[in-house]
Amino acid sequence: MALRLDAAGHRVTLIARGARLTQLQRDGVVEKGVAARNRIAVVGELDVAQPFDVVVLAILRHHFAPLVPVIRASKARQFLTL
Question: Is the whole-model pTM more than 0.70?
Answer without folding.
Answer: yes
